[in-house]
Amino acid sequence: MYDDYRKFFLDAIPMVGSSESVSYMAQLIVSGQVVGLEADMWMTTLSFIQKPTMDMLKAVKVGLTNFNFNKTYLLHIC
Question: What 3-state DSSP class applies to 49?
């Protein structure tokens, strides 16, 4: 049951679209708490943020510099 709640929570984080949610996403990916396909999907959702702020970009920069990410994410983010 805990896994179901965790999945709902983790699925909702990218949908928030705030600088805090982007920062939290980066923290979870860098710490290894979110890995694999879920981390890939989270990175892809960044391209759907319509009005990114400087705080969001800073959080993503930290995530990209501290995480061995798939280079195809650069196309989505740019």
Answer: coil
CA distances from 58 to 5, 36, 37, 64, 65 (A): 29, 23, 23, 10, 11
In 15-53, which positions are buried (b, 16+ CB within 10 angstroms) versus exposed (e)? Answer: eebebebbbebbebbbeeebeeebbeebbbebeebeebe
Nearest 5°: phi and psi at 47? -70, -15
Q: Which two tokens stand for residue 45?
A: 């959702």
- The per-residue pLDDT for 35 is 84
pTM score of the predicted model: 0.74
User: For 1-54, how does the pLDDT look when each residue is reduced to its tens digit (9 = 90+)?
Assistant: 688 899 899 989 988 988 899 889 888 988 889 888 888 888 888 888 888 889
Numbers of helices and strands, H then E, in the chain: 5, 0
Measure CA of the first residue to CA of the last residue in the chain; give whole Å: 38
